[in-house]
Amino acid sequence: MEVWDDLPGQDKAITALRRAVAEGNPAHAWLFTGPPGSGRSNAARAFAAALQCLVPDPAQRGCGQCKACVTVLAGTHPDVALIATEKVNYQIEDVRTLITKAQDRPSTAPWRVIIVEDADRMTERTTNVLLKSIEEPPPHTIWILCAPSPADVLVTIRSRCRSVSLAVPTRQAVAELLVRRDGLTAEQADFAARVSQSHIGIARRLARDEEARRRRDRTVRMPLRIRSVSDAVMAAAELVELSTAEATASSTERAESEAAALRTALGMDADSPIPAQQRGQFKALEENAKRRARRSTHDALDRSLIDLTTFFRDVLLLQLNSGTELVNEYLSENLHAYANASRPEATVAKIDAIAEARARIGANVAPLLAMEAMMVALRPAK
User: Fold this and answer.
1) Which residues pair with 116 in a beta bridge?
2) Inter-residue contact 235 to 380 (CB < 8 Å)
3) What's the predicted TM-score (pTM) here?
């Protein structure tokens, strides 16, 4: 199986990347862009694996079988670094660490490859720290930045990178991948691919996790229960609870594990007081845990709002008689009834209200306040 096999529907991008590998002199900086679910990180890892592949014929590199390909895809290759932030934004010290790493010569492979996921999470000040290394990298270093769109990266960085644009794969392509790689039935794979809107990672999670499917179903059905302001307030509280409970529990568990590991490393008992000279280390752990929790909560809420948008997207398609396939086909009867009871203008206004709520969450508005304002706007018109 080649490294490119996990990139359904990306034939154009794969052709360009294969050509760059075969030519043997790839650009020193790349920008992989595409909407969520397009497989930016997977494409970056596949490209890194092909660059380090041990197959003698350059045109055949990316075999997926040699030691270099296997270790790159597993995240254990010594000359390929995959960087992702669990905070809301990258910190300057994170980028400085990358720049230092970029100066090292590769130990076993022809290239040192540094993959930066979510490069759009860099502030302008942080990006400027990275700029000089992107402009004048060592001859053996290749940078791969991943972002939703070119506009999400500063033009000074964008202009120095070779661009690779990825598209969201078709539902059929995602379903085929889930059947082939994950052993799902055709029915399971098709349902997961449809409701995830062809997002491979989310499709796999929905197919495997019954609780994830239950949470999504409760979120999508919420508009059917909102009739009054009190209904809206209750729905807002439920949505915040659904979206954040799992993220908060995961963040808390990890924070406790990290604190326990630090105590062990310092030779401290679980209940012993923290010495004054060690308090800075524990304080740094707490700050990192808070940033992770904030990002996890934002990401979970944003995903729930995307799921909620699919309800009104389907309603609008029915109102316009577009004939386009519904995302939530299993709710077809409810969607038709809702569509018949309202007008397209009202549906568009509700989609706009959800988009506004997403923007407010991104701007650090208190989640419950943002959700309450949105849910009130989602009430059916009188």
Assistant:
1) 83, 145
2) no
3) 0.73
Residue corresponding to tokens 């070779």: 162
Q: Tens place of pLDDT for every residue, the chain, 382 residues? A: 688 888 888 888 999 999 999 988 899 999 999 887 788 888 999 999 999 999 999 888 999 999 999 999 988 999 998 887 766 678 788 788 888 888 888 988 999 999 998 888 888 888 888 888 888 878 889 999 999 989 888 888 888 999 999 988 888 888 988 888 888 888 888 999 999 988 888 888 888 888 888 889 999 999 999 999 999 999 999 999 887 766 665 566 666 676 677 677 777 776 777 777 777 776 766 766 666 667 777 888 888 999 999 999 999 999 999 888 899 999 999 999 999 999 999 999 999 999 999 999 888 888 999 999 999 999 987 6
Structure tokens at 248: 């908060």
Q: Is 381 left (phi over 0), alpha (psi -120 to 50) or beta?
A: beta
* The amino acid at 257: S
DSSP 241-281: HHHHHHHHHHHHHHHHHHHHHHHHHTT--TTSPPPGGGHHH
Q: 251-271 burial by CB neighbour count: b if 16+ within 10 A, else e?
A: beebbeeebeebbeeeeeeee
